[in-house]
Amino acid sequence: MNAPRQYLTVAVAFLGWMCAGVQMGTMPLASLSVSKNLLGDQFKPDIAAAWFGYFTAALSLGAAVGGILLGWAGDHWGRARAMAVSILLYSVFAGACSQATSQEQLLVLRFFAGLGIGGMWPNGVSLVSEVLPDLSRPWMAGLIGTSANVGMLLISQAGRMKSVTPDSWRWLFLASAVPALMGLVALWAVPESPRWLATRNDPQKKPDTPLSELFAPAMRRTTVVGIMLASIPLIAAWSAGRWLTPWADAEAGAAHPEFKATTQATWAGGAAIGSFFGAQVASLLGRRLTYFLISLGSVTLTCGIFLFFKPLDPLFLPMVFVQGLVATLFFGWLPLCLPELFPTRMRATGTGISYNFGRFIVAGGVLATGELTRLFGGDYSKAGAIMGLVYALGMIVIWFAPPTLGKKLED
User: Fold this and answer.
1) Minimal CA–CA distance to 1: which of 195, 182, 169?
2) Domain boundaries, the chain
3) Are 352 and 67 in contact (CB under 8 A)?
4) Whose CB among 79, 147, 201, 233 lies 3.0–4.6 Å from 17's, allowing a Cys bridge?
5) CA separation (Å) from 302 to 175, 184, 281, 298?
6) pLDDT, mean of each 10-residue run, the chain (411 residues)
């Protein structure tokens, strides 16, 4: 593949995952305002916290299903085509959220938007990892890893420029439909992976039933470890880290309505840096040691913020920035290291299952956080500190992962 076609592929994959990040950053920013508007007289802070858990769970379940199904589609019908379908899915259904008239309608639409978000990651990562030379893979993994957090930073900046209130939140979702234009471009203009195309002409590499083969004896351990390595940061992020924004809104939003957007922007600024350099750190220190240190730093920072700080404290935003930086090093590590675990003919399926299977557990995790918050009378800090302990599991699981440092992607 020539250089211009490589650049086009990377650009669309970056923008596609960036816009998925916009979707993931929308509900932390808008959830409280949405609930105040749609619940009316039934609104209560603890009920709103539970609904944020429901919305996040719906998105996570959709992403889990979409990641598995569209990852499988990427191995069978092409990464570029499956990526385009993913972008169209999350754009159309996110835009439809702007017309919701009840919490239940919004819940269903968030599930369908999640299908596209889940499908974007395995196909985008597999496509980029296969069209670029091995020498540039850590940098490209960092670029893809940071793109979602750039999207979260952009949507939080939009929230700072135009307030998200109970009377003005629909514009946020309506703007989310714009990436559908990019989905159409991806459908017709993005070239297919040469490595994937090669498997179509090789009966021994053609992906007949990669889903079942992933759990066959030869691949079972690798698949299970891949699922756990991707699930731990996802579960902890959505069950603890993402709750920093609604916590800030609940604690300070009445007097400072812009503070939730400032909190999310601060977190996303650190996250954009961390997710970019995660792959470089893994190349420098090794895959296992890097994952262990990220897990240690993440559990310490996340639990520390919820236990020892409050929104509007002088050190709250600096600590949020550092937590975003450290906890998202995982998301530079994952696009570099997960593709190394699987052969080409099952790479999109393998990375899709690894990255998205944990979202089934994420759904349970965020519901648990919502229920804990309600149990503690609307106290986000206690629930966040408890769920932040999930990061500590990474310090154990990583030592079961196969070493991949210095290995090239299997053809």
Assistant:
1) 195
2) 3-189+208-400
3) yes
4) 147
5) 31, 39, 21, 6
6) 78 92 88 91 85 88 89 86 95 94 95 94 83 67 81 85 87 90 89 81 56 82 91 90 87 81 90 89 91 97 96 94 95 85 79 79 82 84 93 95 64 47
- The full length of the chain comes to 411
In single-letter form, the type of residue at position 387 comes to M
Given the candidates 1.20.1250.20, 3.10.450.50, 2.70.20.10, 3.40.930.10, the CATH classification of the domain at 3-189+208-400 is 1.20.1250.20
Report the C-alpha gap between 324 and 124 in whole angstroms: 23
Sort residue 190 into left (φ over 0), alpha (ψ -120 to 50) or beta.
beta
DSSP 44: -
Instruction: Round to whole Å and give the CA distance between 137 and 129.
Output: 6
- The CA-based diameter of the chain, rounded to the nearest angstrom, is 65
User: pTM value?
Assistant: 0.76
Amino acid identity, position 71:
G
Torsion of Cα atoms, 309 then 232 then 235 then 264, to 10°: 50
> In angstroms, rounded to a whole number, what is the distance separating the alpha carbons of residues 44 and 379?
13
Cβ contact 150:110 at 8 Å: no
